[in-house]
Design a protein that fits this description.
This protein has 589 residues and is an alpha/beta fold. 30% of the residues lie in helices and 18% in strands.
Length: 589
C-alpha cells in the first residue's frame, strides 16, 4: 500500500512517531484525529466536585482531568431535565428544534419505553458525523431518547439507528422502577388475588357480549366500554403502584437484544464499566468515539457496598465517589493502552442537581453551589450550569480555567471539527466550535445569546456583550417554589414550566458576571442600563423565533402514553423477564 506522506514535514512526523511511540500516549499532531471519550453524569450538581469547590466529597479522578485539562465555569445545558438536554447534546440544537421539548409540566422527559416519542431519525448526531469519518462509535449507559415508534421491535429511535456502532445499557435510565428488589416484593397470595381480580374485571366486557350474540337481549355498548375502562385502569393502578412495572421499564440491552429484564441493580455499574473498558481495548488501534453515560448520580443511587458510608455526604456522596472511581478506571485504561495523549476526554452532567430528591430528612440529590435552583427549574442557574472539563494533552493547556459562556451543544461542532466531519448545511446548528477558545486562540466565546427553555416555553435569555465581559440574564418566567419561601418545589415533584409560575413584567434582569447567584435583580426604574439591555435581548428573541420551524412534538400526549404493542419484553408479555448476562468477573477495586 502506498504511504500517505508526500512531503518532508509528513515524513518527519512519522519518524518522530516511531522514535517516541513507546512513550505514554506517543506524539500527537494537531491534524491527527484523536480518540474521543465523553463522560456524562446524570443529575450531578456543579458544586458536587472538588475541582468546583466541594470539600465534603472526594473526586480525585475528575479533579485530575481538570488539573490536566481545561475547566469551564459557565458551562450550560439546553434543558434542565435529561431527555431534552441530551437531545441537544447529541445534535447541537435546541430541543425545540427537534421536537424533544415537552408541552406539559409533567413528563418533561420520556417516562415509558413503550411511548412512541424519541429523537427523530432525521436528526444528525455527532456519532453519525464521526462514523462517516471512520470512527468506531459506542454508547455505554443511559440513552433516554426513545426506543420504538411502530412496533416493539422496530427500534426506530435506538442508538444504533443514530449511528452508534455499539450500545450497552438501559435504554431509558434509572427511575423509581429500578429500586432494589426487596422494596417492591408483595406476598405471593396478594399478587395472586390482584391478578385474579384483574382477570375477572377483564372478562366482564366479554361476558356482556354473550346476551347480544345469543339474541337474548341488547346490552348497551356504553356499559361494555365502562367495564373495559375499569379493568384497564385497575390493572394499571395496582401494577404501577406496587412497582410491577420494574420488569417493563428497568431493563438492560446489548445492541438490539434484551439481556436483563429486570436489570440487576447491584451489578449494573460493574457491567457498564467492563463494557467501556472492553470497547477501548477492542478499538484502540483505530479512532473511536466512546460515550459513557453514567447512571450515577440519579436516584435510587445504586451504589456498590464498598462505597456505602465512604463519603461525608451520605448515600449521595457515596454515589458520587463511586462514579469518580469508575472515571479513574477509564483513565487508567487509556494510560495502559498508551492512548492518553491521543484522546480527548470530556466530562459533564446532563443537568443540575435534584433539590427535591429526598428520603425523609436525607438529601438524595446534588448541590449546585452558589447557584439558585436545580434540576427542572426553568432558567435558574442551578438547573442549567454544570461541570465541563476537556482534557487533550499536548493540545490543550493543563490547568486552564475559562469563565466564558459555553454550552453542551458546543460539543457537536467541536467533535465535528477535530474529527474532520462536515456539519449539516440543511438545518440550524446552535452550538459553536470550542477549539479556538480551549486552545487560547480567542478569549471570547462565540455565544452572544443563549436561550433557556423550560419545555416549550422560553423562560430566560443570556446576553454576553461582545465589547466587554458583562453577562446579562433576563427572566421572563420563573417557577413558583413551594412551600412559599423555599428554594425548590418540595412535595410536588418537578416545578411547572407554565400555568402555576411567576410571570415577570417588567422581566427580572441580573448581571450574572457580578451576581452569579441571581440574588440581586436590577431595579427597572433606577438602573440606567435596564431598558437598553431589555431591548437588545428582546430583539435577539424575535430573531431566534424566526429561525424556528414547526416539527412533530415527540412528547405530545399521544406519544407520551404507554402503548402495550411498543413494550419491549424478554419472554411473554406481561410476564417479562430474563437474565442472559450470567455471572460477571467484578472489576478490581
Amino acid at each position: 500500500m502506498e504511504h500517505p506522506c508526500h512531503d518532508w514535514n509528513c515524513w518527519l512526523t512519522v519518524w518522530l512517531w516511531y522514535l517516541f511511540g513507546s512513550a505514554n500516549g506517543a506524539v500527537v499532531t494537531r491534524n491527527s484525529r484523536p480518540n474521543i471519550v465523553l463522560l456524562m453524569a446524570d443529575d450531578l450538581g456543579v458544586g458536587d466536585l472538588c475541582c468546583y469547590g466541594n470539600h465534603t466529597v472526594s473526586t480525585p479522578n475528575i479533579d485530575r482531568l481538570a488539573s490536566e485539562g481545561v475547566r469551564l465555569t459557565q458551562h450550560l445545558v439546553a434543558g434542565s431535565v435529561c431527555s431534552p438536554s441530551r437531545a441537544a447534546f447529541l445534535t447541537g440544537r435546541y430541543p425545540i428544534r427537534s421536537g424533544t421539548a415537552s408541552p406539559f409540566n409533567l413528563n418533561r422527559a420520556l417516562a415509558w419505553l413503550a411511548g412512541s416519542g424519541g429523537l427523530p431519525t432525521n436528526e444528525t448526531t455527532f456519532a453519525r458525523l464521526l462514523q462517516h469519518r471512520g470512527y468506531r462509535t459506542g454508547l455505554i449507559g443511559k440513552w433516554h431518547q426513545g426506543l420504538s415508534c411502530g412496533s416493539c421491535n422496530d427500534h426506530c429511535y435506538h442508538p444504533l439507528n443514530h449511528s452508534f456502532d455499539y450500545f450497552y445499557g438501559p435504554p431509558l435510565g434509572l427511575l423509581s422502577d429500578c429500586q432494589p428488589r426487596q422494596r417492591w416484593e408483595l406476598h405471593r397470595g396478594l399478587r395472586l388475588k390482584l391478578w385474579l381480580s384483574t382477570a375477572a374485571l377483564g372478562l366482564v366486557p366479554l361476558l356482556l357480549l354473550v346476551p347480544k350474540l345469543a339474541g337474548w337481549f341488547q346490552v348497551p355498548w356504553k356499559l361494555t366500554v365502562v367495564f373495559s375502562l375499569l379493568a384497564f385502569l385497575f390493572f394499571i393502578s395496582w401494577y404501577s403502584s406496587y412497582g410491577f412495572v420494574r420488569p417493563w421499564n428497568c431493563l438492560l440491552i446489548r445492541d438490539h437484544e434484551i439481556i436483563q429484564q429486570p436489570m440487576k441493580e447491584e451489578k449494573v455499574s460493574s457491567l457498564m464499566l467492563k463494557e467501556a473498558l472492553s470497547f477501548i481495548e477492542r478499538y484502540k488501534h483505530a479512532p473511536f468515539l466512546l460515550f459513557v453515560s453514567f447512571l450515577h448520580v440519579h436516584t435510587p443511587l445504586l451504589t456498590k457496598e464498598k462505597f456505602v458510608g465512604h463519603s461525608k455526604y451520605g448515600l449521595y456522596g457515596d454515589n458520587v465517589e463511586e462514579m469518580d472511581w469508575m472515571v479513574g478506571k477509564i483513565l487508567d485504561a487509556l494510560d495502559q493502552e498508551r492512548l492518553t495523549n491521543h484522546t480527548l476526554v470530556y466530562f459533564t452532567s446532563d443537568n443540575g442537581g435534584c433539590l427535591e430528591c429526598q428520603d425523609g430528612p436525607a438529601q438524595l440529590g446534588g448541590w449546585n453551589g452558589v447557584y439558585r435552583g436545580g434540576k427542572g427549574m426553568g432558567g435558574w442557574e442551578g438547573g442549567i450550569r454544570v461541570p465541563g472539563v476537556f482534557r487533550w494533552p499536548t493540545v490543550l493547556e493543563a490547568g486552564k480555567v475559562i469563565d466564558e459562556p459555553t454550552s453542551l451543544m458546543d460539543v457537536y461542532p467541536t467533535l465535528s471539527y477535530i474529527g474532520g466531519g462536515i456539519l449539516p448545511q440543511d438545518r440550524v446548528i446552535d452550538g459553536q466550535n470550542l477549539m479556538p477558545l480551549l486552545e487560547g486562540r480567542v478569549s471570547h466565546s462565540d455565544h452572544e445569546f443563549l436561550f433557556h427553555y423550560c419545555g416549550l416555553y422560553l423562560h430566560a435569555v443570556r446576553w454576553h456583550q461582545r465589547d466587554c465581559a458583562t453577562v446579562w440574564k433576563v427572566h421572563y418566567v420563573t417557577p413558583k417554589f413551594h412551600p412559599e419561601g423555599a428554594g425548590a418545589c418540595y412535595g410536588g415533584g418537578t416545578c411547572s414550566c407554565s400555568g402555576d409560575v411567576n410571570y415577570h413584567d417588567p422581566p427580572l434582569l441580573f448581571d450574572i458576571s457580578r451576581d452569579p447567584s441571581e440574588s440581586r435583580p436590577l431595579n427597572p426604574y433606577n438602573e440606567e442600563h435596564f431598558d437598553s439591555v431589555i431591548r437588545k435581548i428582546e430583539a435577539a428573541v424575535k430573531e431566534h423565533h424566526r429561525t424556528l420551524t414547526p416539527v412533530p412534538q415527540q412528547m405530545s400526549l399521544f406519544n407520551s402514553v404507554w402503548k402495550p404493542w411498543l413494550q419491549p419484553c424478554c419472554g411473554t408479555f406481561p410476564f417479562c423477564g430474563c437474565d442472559k448476562e450470567g455471572d460477571i468477573i467484578p472489576i478490581a477495586q
